[in-house]
Design goal:
Elements: E1 15-19, H1 22-30, E2 34-35, E3 53-59, E4 62-68, H2 75-88, E5 94-103, E6 117-126, E7 134-137, E8 140-143, H3 156-167, H4 169-189, H5 191-194, H6 234-238, H7 241-244, H8 255-265, E9 288-296, H9 303-313, E10 315-319, H10 322-326, E11 331-339, H11 350-367, E12 386-387, H12 400-410, E13 416-420, H13 427-438, E14 443-448, H14 452-465, H15 474-486, E15 493-498, H16 512-515, E16 523-529, H17 532-539, E17 545-547, H18 553-563, H19 570-579, H20 584-597, H21 603-610, H22 614-622, H23 638-652, H24 654-663, E18 671-672, H25 677-680, E19 690-692, H26 698-705, E20 713-715, H27 718-725, H28 802-818, E21 823-826, E22 829-831, H29 834-846, H30 850-866, H31 879-882, H32 893-912, H33 921-942, H34 947-962, H35 966-978, H36 985-1004, H37 1008-1026, H38 1031-1046, H39 1050-1061, H40 1065-1068, H41 1071-1091, H42 1094-1110, H43 1112-1115, H44 1126-1137, H45 1141-1158, H46 1169-1174, H47 1179-1191, H48 1201-1216, H49 1220-1236, H50 1245-1263
Parallel strand pairs: 1-4, 1-5, 5-11, 6-9, 9-10, 12-14, 13-16, 13-17, 14-15, 15-16
Antiparallel strand pairs: 2-3, 3-4, 5-10, 6-11, 7-8, 18-22, 19-20, 21-22
Length: 1280
C-alpha cells in the first residue's frame, strides 16, 4: 500500500469539498481515504478572520480540505466562506460543492430519480419566478442569454474534465464504476445512514398539484386554495403527503422507477441483479446526470415554476450555494437528488442522496490528475511578475458584490474598470485584495497615479522589474512598457492605477501615458479614483465604473471587531460604526486608537469622546494611523485624506466648496435640492423684516428694541432688508451676475477665491490655531464684526436670472457629486456622508467662520419657509434639517431673528402635526418647554415688544392652557395684552389675534360672558378700522358667533354662520383664515346638535347643509380627510337621534357624493390612470390598475398633503361605485405608507386623519349593510 506523507502547510492543498449541511459534511468525511487532523481539531489552523469549519484529509493522491459553511445554506453564505477559504488555503485550484439538491424529474427525454446525482456543466441563477432571467431597464425587460450571462465559466481544467465525462465512454464508464464501488464501501461502513430507502416512497406529483390539506373533513382554508399563489398553512407545509392525503392519482408514471421498485423488491432476481456478492443491481444504481444547474437564494418549492425554468434554461437540478462559490473558486456542483423541487418535500432520501453525491465526488477526484508542485506552470512557464507594494490584509472584510463585479469585468478582454468613492471608502484595499487573488495566474503591476511624477516613477519600476532595455529617457520607458503589455505572448497581466484623483495626470495633449496602458486582450486595468471625471474617461463610461458606498452595518461591525485586540460589546460596536458611517478608514482608525490606549480606552470611551465636543472629534478623526497597505504619502486619517479632496474641488470650482459649507448644516440623510435655491437666487421679499427708525441704523434699531419701552417698527423695504442681510448672501448673486450665461463662454471657475481657503493644509506649523479668515474688514461680503451688517448691496443688482442660478447650482452639485462628497438618493434628493459633514464643520470651526455659515443657513431656510410651495415641495421636508437648531441659543439680534422664526416653525409643525388625542401630557410639557425657550431668546435679543416676541408669548400662553395650567395661561395673555401700547402695527395685529385665543379659552372654561365681551369689543374695533368685509373682521365675527353658540344664543350664531358660509372668499383672500372660519361654522353646527332639541336643530342644520351644497368649493374643500364632510355628518347625527335612519343614510350618501366632486384627484402617471380605474373596467384589469395607483405610494419622493387627500378621494369614489374591497385596499395602502414615511410616521396628524378616514368609511359600511344592494340612498328622503 502506497504511503502518503501528511502535508506540511495549508499551501499543500489544491482541492476543496464544500458542504452546506452537517449531513452533507458527514458523508463527505466518510469517503476520505485518510484524515490528517487529530482529535484536537485541524492541525494546520486557518486565517484569523476565517469563520469556516475545516477537516483536512486525503482522497487518492489529492490533499483535500473539507469545508462546512458557517451559516448554512445560501449563496451569500457560500460566497463569504469561499472568500475565507482562499485566505486560509491560497493554492486551492478547484472546489466540489457536494451535498443534496432538488431534481427536475423529467428534463427532456431522461428520467431523474431520487438518489441520482447532478453534476454542473454550468450554473444559472434563479429566483422563484420564471421572469427572473433578465434585466429590467427603463424602457422594458431584456432577457438574459443564458448561463454565459449569469455566471462565470468553469475554467479550463474543469471544462476539460466535464467534456471528457460527457463525451468519452472510457471516462463515463470509469466514473460510474468507481461511484458504485465508493457507494458500496460507504454503505458497508454505515448501512443505517446510507442504504437506499424504499423506492416506493419516490413519488413525484403533477407540477400543478399542490401539497396542502386535501381531505374534505379537514377544516382549513388552504384545502380550498387551488391557485399557485394561494397561501398554504404552516401545518400543511410541515406534514407528509400521507398525512395530508395527497392523491396518488396525480402521480407521474416513470419506467425507471418501476424497474427500481421491482429490483428493490427482488434483489436476487437474475434479470435485475449483477453477479457477485454485495453487487448493486443496475436498476438500483444512482444515475449520474451532467447539465446546467440552477442556483438561487431560496429553496425551490413550486413544481410549476420549476418546470418553467427547467424548460427555458435547460436545467436538471436546483440548489442554493453554487452561485456563491462559483465566482470565487473554479467549481463543480456535485449533488444528490433528495426531492423534486416542489411543495411535496421528502426528507427520507436526504442521507442516501448525500452519500451518492459523496461517492461521485470521490470518483471524480480519482479522474483529476495531481498537479506537480515543483513546477506549477509546466515547461516554458514564466512565473508571474509581482509588483505590488502592499501585503494582504489578514483582517480584510470582503464586499462580495464589488469583488464579483471586478471578477466579471476582468474576464472581458482588454477591459478597464474604475472604483470611485470618497477617500478612505476602501477602493485601494479592494484593489489590493483583488491583486492578491490573481497573482498566481497573472502579472500584477501597481501604478501610483497621485501625480504625474509618481506615475512616471511607477512605470520606471515596471520596466526595471521586466528588465526592459532603456535609453534612460522617460519616453523610452513608457514606450517599452506599453509594447510589452501589448504583446499577448507575455501572458495575462493586471494593472492597478491607484489614486487617479486628478484627471490632469492623464491628459489628451500628452498621450504618452495613455499609450503605455494598452487595452490588450490579455490585460485588465483597475482604476481607483475619487473623481468620476477622469475615471470614466479612462474606463470608457459609467458602465465600467463602480461607485463604492460605505460598508453595511454588519460588515462594518465585523471589520471593527477584527481590528480590535479585544472585541467590544456588539451594541457598542454598532454605535461606533454608525457614527462613523461605515467608513473603513475611520473604523480602522478608531480601532487603532482604542488599541493604542488600551486598557484605558474602549469602544464606550471612544463614543463618549467623539460626542463630547469639536476638539475631541477633530483629535479622533485627525490622529495619524500608520498602515502598510496605504501608499507612501497617503494620509492615514479621515481628516487628512479628505483635505486632499477638498483642495482638489477648490482648485476646480471654489463655489462648490461654499455650497459644501452650507450643506454641512443640513441633516445629511435627505437634503432636498429645492431647499438650496435661495442660496443661488435670494429674494428680499422672502427675507425677514428688519427694525428701522428715523435717525437710527438698522443695527441701532435692533438694540433700541431691547430697552422694552422703545417702540420699534419693522420694515419690509427690500433696500432695508439688503442693508441688514446683504453680507450673508452668496457671492455672485448680487453685483455683476450676468442675466444669462453666454453659450460656450461660461467659466466654471468663479473669479474670486473660495471662502474656504483655510482648507489648504498649513505645513509650516503644527499649531492647532486656525488660519487667518480670507475676509478683510470692509470688503464686499465681509462679515465684519459678528452681529453687525456688512457692506450693503444695491437692490438693483440682487436679482439673478433663474436660468443662471439653476446652472450655477447644477455645476456646484456636479463638482461635489463627482468626488462623492454628495450622493443622489432619489429624484431631487441628496445624501452626505456624516463624516463629510463632521469634517466640514470642524474646518469651519478652526477657521472661525462657523457662525457666519450658520447665519447663512438660517437665512436660506427662512426664505424657504416664505417661498411659495411648488413642484411637490412641502415645508414638512425642512423639519429634519431644523430640529438640531433647538439646542442652540443665539446671542446677537441678527442671528436670533432668524433662529426664532425657524424655531417657531418647528414648534408649530410639531403642534399641528399631532391630533389632540395623540398629544400626551409629556408631549405637551415638551411643547411648553420649547415655547418658553423660544420666548426667552426672543425677549433677550429682540426685546419684549417685537412682533416675534409677542407671537412667542402667545404660544407660551396656549401651551400653558394645553397643559391645564389655566391661571398661568390667563396671566400670560393679560401680559401680552398689556404690551399693545409699545407694539408696532404688526405687533398690534398679533395681540388682537391673541385676544381671540384668550376669548376661546375663557369660553372653554365656562367664562362665556367674559369671552363674549372680549370678542364683541374686538369685532367692533376691526369693523371700525378695517370695514365689515375685511378678512380679519370676518374672522373676528366667526369667533364671536362661536362664543354666542356656547352661550345658547342659537339664532344669532346661526345667522352669522350662514352669512360666513355665503361669503365670497375668493375676494376676501387668506385661505388659512378661510379654513379656520369654516371650522368655526362646523363648531357652531355641532354645538346646536349637542345643546338643542334635535327636532328644533334639524331645520337650521338643513339650511346650513343646503348652503354648503350651493357653495361646495367654498365650504367643503377643507374637509378632504372625512368621507362625507362635517356638515352632512352632523345633520346625519341629528336625523339618527330622531330615528330617521333612511334619511340619515341618504344624507351621508349625498355628502360623500358632493365630496367626490369637490376634492381634486391626484396627478398620477400615466395621466389617464385614475379615469381608467374608475371607468368600471373588467375585474382582471381592475386589480392591475389599482396596484398601479398603490405603486405611487411606494415611491420615495415626498408628496404634498393634497396628493394624499386625492388618493383618499379615489377610495371615496370607489366606495360610491360599490367597489368596497378596492376602496379599503387603497385606504389601507395609504395608511401604511404614511405610517412608514420618514416625514410623517405613526404619530403625524395626517396619518391620524387618514386612519380616521378609514374608520369612518368602515362605520358607514357596517351601519348600512344594505348599501351594497344600493337600497340606502333614497333622494326622496333627503327633504331638500
Amino acid at each position: 500500500m502506497e504511503s502518503h506523507q501528511p502535508p506540511s502547510s495549508r499551501e499543500d492543498f489544491d482541492v476543496a469539498i464544500v458542504c452546506a449541511l452537517p449531513l452533507e459534511f458527514d458523508a463527505a468525511v466518510s469517503v476520505l481515504d485518510e484524515v490528517w487532523d487529530d482529535a484536537n481539531g485541524p492541525a494546520l489552523g486557518k486565517a484569523r478572520s476565517d469563520l469556516n469549519t475545516y477537516v483536512n484529509g486525503r482522497i487518492g493522491a489529492h490533499n483535500v480540505v473539507l469545508v462546512l459553511l458557517a451559516t448554512r445554506m445560501g449563496k451569500v453564505s457560500a460566497a463569504i466562506s469561499a472568500s475565507d477559504l482562499r485566505h486560509s488555503y491560497p493554492n486551492v485550484r478547484m472546489a466540489l460543492l457536494v451535498g443534496i439538491c432538488g431534481g427536475v424529474p423529467l428534463p427532456g427525454n431522461i428520467e431523474i430519480l431520487l438518489g441520482d446525482v447532478a453534476i454542473s456543466s454550468s450554473l444559472v441563477q434563479y429566483a422563484n419566478s420564471p421572469t427572473y432571467f433578465g434585466r429590467r431597464y427603463p424602457d422594458g425587460f431584456l432577457r438574459k442569454s443564458g448561463a454565459a450571462d449569469n455566471l462565470a465559466g468553469l475554467g479550463r481544467e474543469l471544462a476539460g474534465l466535464i467534456n471528457m465525462l460527457q463525451n468519452t465512454e472510457l471516462q463515463r464508464k470509469a466514473l460510474r464504476e468507481r461511484t458504485v464501488a465508493n457507494l458500496r464501501a460507504l454503505q458497508q461502513c454505515d448501512p443505517d445512514r446510507y442504504s437506499m430507502p424504499d423506492p416506493a416512497t419516490d413519488r413525484v406529483y403533477r407540477a400543478d398539484y399542490r401539497h396542502k390539506h386535501q381531505a374534505p373533513d379537514v377544516e382549513c382554508l388552504c384545502r380550498e386554495h387551488s391557485q399557485e399563489t394561494d397561501p398554504v398553512c404552516e401545518k400543511a407545509m410541515e406534514s407528509s403527503c400521507d398525512d395530508l392525503g395527497c392523491d396518488d392519482g396525480f402521480l407521474l408514471s416513470r419506467r425507471r422507477l418501476e424497474e427500481r421498485i421491482a429490483a428493490f423488491a427482488n434483489p436476487s432476481d437474475p434479470d435485475t441483479a449483477e453477479a457477485g456478492d454485495g453487487a448493486i443491481s443496475a436498476a438500483l444504481e444512482p444515475a449520474i446526470h451532467i447539465g446546467r444547474v440552477a442556483s438561487g437564494d431560496t429553496v425551490m418549492k413550486s413544481g410549476v415554476t420549476r418546470d418553467v425554468i427547467a424548460a427555458s434554461e435547460d436545467v436538471i437540478a436546483f440548489e442554493m450555494e453554487g452561485a456563491g462559490i462559483w465566482e470565487h473558486v473554479p467549481s463543480l456542483v456535485v449533488k444528490g437528488v433528495c426531492d423534486y423541487a416542489d411543495s411535496h418535500k421528502n426528507k427520507k432520501w436526504q442521507r442516501y442522496a448525500a452519500g451518492t453525491a459523496a461517492a461521485v465526488a470521490k470518483a471524480i477526484m480519482s479522474l483529476v490528475p495531481v498537479a506537480d508542485r515543483r513546477d506549477l506552470g509546466g515547461a516554458g512557464f514564466r512565473k508571474p511578475e509581482w509588483l505590488v507594494p502592499f501585503p494582504p490584509d489578514p483582517d480584510f472584510v470582503d464586499r462580495p458584490d464589488i469583488s464579483e463585479w471586478l471578477k466579471e469585468k476582468s474576464q472581458v478582454p482588454g477591459a478597464r474598470a474604475a472604483l470611485i468613492g470618497l477617500g478612505g471608502i476602501g477602493k485601494s484595499q479592494l484593489a489590493i485584495q483583488f491583486a492578491h487573488s490573481v497573482r498566481d495566474r497573472s502579472h500584477v503591476f501597481w501604478l501610483s497615479a497621485a501625480t504625474r511624477a509618481t506615475l512616471e516613477e511607477s512605470f520606471r519600476a515596471v520596466a526595471e522589474r521586466l528588465k526592459l532595455p532603456s535609453d534612460g529617457k522617460q519616453d523610452g520607458v513608457l514606450e517599452q512598457v506599453g509594447r510589452w503589455l501589448a504583446d499577448e505572448s507575455n501572458g495575462r497581466w493586471t494593472v492597478i492605477l491607484d489614486n487617479l484623483d486628478d484627471p490632469s495626470v492623464l491628459t489628451e495633449d500628452d498621450p504618452r501615458l495613455l499609450k503605455a496602458l494598452p487595452q490588450a486582450n490579455n490585460g485588465f486595468t483597475i482604476v481607483t479614483a475619487r473623481s468620476v471625471q477622469g475615471a470614466e474617461l479612462l474606463a470608457g463610461g459609467t458602465k465600467n465604473t463602480y461607485a463604492i458606498e460605505p460598508m453595511s452595518e454588519a460588515d462594518s461591525v465585523r471589520l471593527f471587531q477584527t481590528k480590535l485586540r479585544e472585541p467590544a460589546p456588539d451594541e457598542d460596536a454598532e454605535r461606533v460604526v454608525r457614527i462613523l458611517g461605515g467608513m473603513p478608514l475611520a473604523i480602522t482608525q478608531a480601532a487603532a486608537y482604542i488599541n493604542r490606549k488600551a486598557p484605558r480606552s474602549s469602544a464606550t470611551e471612544y463614543l463618549r469622546l467623539f460626542e463630547e465636543d469639536d476638539e475631541r472629534r477633530a483629535s479622533l478623526l485627525g490622529g495619524e494611523h500608520k498602515d502598510l497597505r496605504r501608499a507612501d504619502g497617503a494620509s492615514g486619517t479621515v481628516l487628512g485624506t479628505w483635505s486632499i479632496t477638498f483642495e482638489q474641488v477648490q482648485r476646480e470650482r471654489p463655489a462648490a466648496v461654499d455650497l459644501l459649507c452650507l450643506l454641512s448644516f443640513f441633516d445629511p440623510q435627505s437634503i432636498p435640492e429645492w431647499a438650496l435655491r435661495p442660496w443661488y437666487s435670494p429674494d428680499p421679499s422672502q427675507m425677514p423684516s428688519v427694525p428701522t427708525e428715523t435717525g437710527l441704523s438698522s443695527f441701532s434699531s435692533l438694540l433700541a428694541s431691547l430697552k422694552g419701552k422703545q417702540k420699534v417698527a419693522l420694515s419690509s423695504d427690500p433696500e432695508k432688508k439688503l442693508e441688514t442681510w446683504g453680507f450673508l448672501l452668496r457671492e455672485g448673486t448680487a453685483p455683476k451676475a450676468p442675466a444669462t450665461p453666454t453659450p460656450g463662454k461660461h467659466s466654471s471657475k468663479p473669479s474670486k477665491s473660495s471662502r474656504l481657503s483655510f482648507f489648504k493644509k498649513n505645513k509650516s506649523s503644527s499649531s492647532r490655531s486656525a488660519p487667518t479668515s480670507p475676509y478683510t474688514p470692509g470688503s464686499p461680503g465681509s462679515p465684519g464684526t459678528p452681529g453687525t451688517p456688512g457692506t450693503p448691496f444695491s437692490p438693483s443688482t440682487t436679482t439673478v436670472s433663474s436660468h443662471y442660478a439653476e446652472d450655477e447650482l447644477e455645476r456646484d452639485l456636479e463638482a461635489l457629486l463627482a468626488y462623492s462628497l454628495l450622493i443622489p438618493t432619489a429624484r431631487g434628493v441628496l445624501k452626505m456622508h456624516p463624516l463629510v459633514r463632521h469634517c466640514t464643520q470642524l474646518w469651519l470651526a478652526q477657521s472661525d467662520t462657523r457662525n457666519l455659515w450658520r447665519q447663512r443657513f438660517y437665512l436660506v431656510m427662512v426664505q424657504n419657509l416664505e417661498a411659495p410651495l411648488a413642484d411637490g415641495r412641502s415645508h414638512m421636508g425642512l423639519i429634519p434639517h431644523l430640529t438640531s437648531i433647538l439646542t442652540e441659543e443665539p446671542r446677537d439680534p441678527l442671528t436670533a431673528r432668524l433662529w426664532v422664526i425657524l424655531a417657531c416653525f418647528v414648534y408649530s409643525t410639531a403642534h399641528n402635526s399631532h391630533l389632540n388625542a395623540n398629544r400626551s401630557d409629556a408631549f405637551k410639557q415638551s411643547e411648553l418647554k420649547l415655547a418658553g425657550k423660544i420666548l426667552e431668546v426672543s425677549e433677550r435679543t429682540l426685546g419684549p415688544n417685537d412682533k416675534l416676541t409677542l407671537i412667542c408669548l402667545d404660544r407660551v400662553a396656549q401651551s400653558l392652557n394645553d397643559c391645564g395650567e389655566h391661571e398661568r395661561a390667563y396671566e400670560a395673555w393679560e401680559e401680552l395684552l398689556a404690551r399693545e401700547e409699545g407694539a408696532d402695527r404688526d405687533g398690534k395685529w398679533v395681540i388682537k389675534e391673541s385676544r381671540l385665543a384668550y376669548a376661546r379659552t375663557l369660553a372653554e372654561r365656562g367664562r362665556v360672558e367674559e369671552a363674549e365681551r372680549v370678542t364683541r369689543e374686538l369685532l367692533a374695533q376691526r369693523e371700525a378700522e378695517l370695514g365689515g368685509r375685511a378678512i380679519d373682521t370676518l374672522w373676528s365675527r366667526a369667533n364671536h358667533a362661536d362664543v354666542l353658540a356656547s352661550m345658547g344664543r342659537w339664532d344669532e350664531a346661526h345667522a352669522i354662520a350662514m352669512e360666513l358660509l355665503e361669503t365670497n372668499w375668493a375676494q376676501a383672500g387668506d385661505s388659512h383664515l378661510h379654513m379656520q372660519v369654516i371650522n368655526i361654522c362646523v363648531s357652531i353646527e355641532l354645538k346646536m346638535l349637542e345643546g338643542r332639541d334635535p327636532a328644533e336643530a334639524e331645520p337650521l342644520l338643513r339650511e346650513m347643509v343646503a348652503t354648503v351644497e350651493k357653495f361646495p368649493d367654498n365650504c367643503l374643500g377643507w374637509f378632504a380627510y372625512t368621507p362625507v364632510g362635517h356638515f352632512h355628518d352632523i345633520l346625519s347625527q341629528c336625523l339618527a337621534k330622531q330615528r330617521k335612519f333612511s334619511a340619515e343614510g341618504t344624507v351621508l350618501a349625498r355628502g360623500m357624493e358632493i365630496m367626490v366632486k369637490t376634492i381634486s384627484m391626484p396627478e398620477l402617471n400615466p395621466p389617464s390612470l385614475v379615469d381608467d380605474l374608475l371607468e368600471g373596467v373588467a375585474d382582471a384589469a381592475r386589480q392591475k390598475l389599482l396596484n398601479a395607483v398603490i405603486d405611487h405610494l411606494r415611491e420615495d419622493e415626498e408628496h404634498p398633503v393634497e396628493f394624499y387627500y386625492g388618493i383618499a378621494n379615489i377610495a371615496r369614489r370607489l366606495y360610491m361605485q360599490h367597489r368596497v374591497d378596492e376602496a379599503f385596499t387603497l385606504t389601507d395602502a395609504l395608511v401604511n405608507h404614511l405610517k412608514a414615511h420618514p416625514v410623517f410616521g405613526v404619530d403625524h396628524k395626517l396619518t391620524g386623519l387618514m386612519v380616521n378616514f378609514r374608520k369612518d368609511l368602515k362605520w358607514i359600511e357596517d351601519r348600512f349593510p344594505k348599501r351594497r344592494q344600493k337600497e340606502w340612498y333614497r333622494p326622496d328622503l333627503l327633504g331638500m
